[in-house]
């Protein structure tokens, strides 16, 4: 899958023996989305369910900690921007959601996508 969760991340550098100016920086973090059909990480495709709510981080502290571990720096803020996904991958995701609809406490796939991703899905070419 080439789909990616896109986050804006602000991080701080700390160095005990030098002064830094600026000490804080902002970057874009692109986290690869797990294919719902992946046998290596069968629950990884549920990242959006476990971490997002209406297109925003549902637990910013947890996501900051996760990003800090990934980047090796002190992440001071993180915000979700979008799920960048191509049309075929979106159909695969929609099919996986439909097969597991009970896990989402929703009536249909569109409700699930809106509930967790809001309007933050960008279909790429």
UniProtKB/TrEMBL annotation:
Domain of life per record: Archaea
Pfam families membership: LWR_salt (PF26423)
Descriptive protein name: LWR-salt protein
InterPro entries: LWR_salt (IPR049798)
């Amino acid at each position: 899958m080439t789909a990616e969760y896109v986050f804006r991340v602000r991080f701080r550098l700390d160095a005990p023996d030098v002064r830094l100016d600026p000490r804080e920086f902002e970057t874009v973090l692109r986290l690869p989305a797990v294919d719902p059909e992946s046998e290596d990480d069968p629950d990884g495709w549920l990242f959006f369910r476990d971490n997002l709510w209406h297109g925003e981080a549902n637990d910013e502290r947890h996501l900051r900690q996760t990003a800090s571990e990934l980047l090796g720096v002190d992440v001071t803020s993180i915000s979700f921007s979008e799920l960048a996904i191509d049309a075929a991958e979106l159909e695969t995701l929609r099919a996986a959601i439909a097969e597991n609809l009970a896990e989402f406490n929703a009536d249909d796939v569109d409700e699930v996508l809106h509930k967790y991703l809001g309007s933050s899905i960008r279909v790429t070419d």
